[in-house]
Amino acid sequence: MKSSNLYSHHHIKGCWEHHLEWAPKYRFSVLRKQSIKEDCEAILMQIARERDWEILELAVMPDHVHVIMRTHKPENPSGILFHLKGRSAYELFRKHPNMRKRYWGGHFWSRGSFCRNNYVRRQADIHQTTLQTWAI
């Protein structure tokens, strides 16, 4: 990253940071299980590396996920969510086949998403240790 925190792409300069939040279908607390939570974190980090995105903060809560990320070019947040939710669901179903019993339709994540500034940093969850690991 450049020292000014600005990227240049096709005559556009800027800093493209996105705060994304999404939840599993029916808001089940399936991410409470440590092995699923760790796999979800690893999968999201792998997707970000492959797409050349920088994850600034990552918080996998028992019933939802928060991600603050920076992209090196302007990208539509819905496209970012498409990649994160689609690939992570595929990989989680592959690694944990028993999850298909609860999500029998093959859809792990709910259709919606949410965005708010500084929300992740204000989360007061004493059980969340990953946020401290990824905090700036």
Q: Would you kindly provide a written description of the structure presented here, covering whatever features stand out?
A:
This protein has 136 residues and is an alpha+beta fold. It has one domain (7-134): Alpha-Beta Plaits (2-Layer Sandwich), CATH 3.30.70. Helices cover 34% and strands 21% of the residues. It has four helices and five strands, in the order E-E-E-H-E-E-H-H-H. It has helices at 34-51, 77-95, 99-102, 130-134, and strands at residues 7-9, 12-14, 16-22, 53-60, 65-71. It has a three-stranded antiparallel β-sheet. Strands 1-2 form a two-stranded antiparallel ribbon. Helix 1 crosses helix 2. The radius of gyration is 15 Å and the shape is elongated.
Q: What are the low-pLDDT stretches, counting only 5+ consecutive residues below 50?
A: none
Average the pLDDT over all residues and give the rounded result: 81
Percent strand equals: 15-25%
- What is the overall shape? elongated
Can you identify the CATH superfamily?
A: Transposase IS200-like
- Overall CATH class: Alpha Beta
In short:
By secondary structure, the protein is an alpha+beta fold.
Please tag this protein with its features.
two-stranded antiparallel sheet, 4 helices, single chain, 136 residues, Alpha-Beta Plaits, alpha+beta, three-stranded antiparallel β-sheet
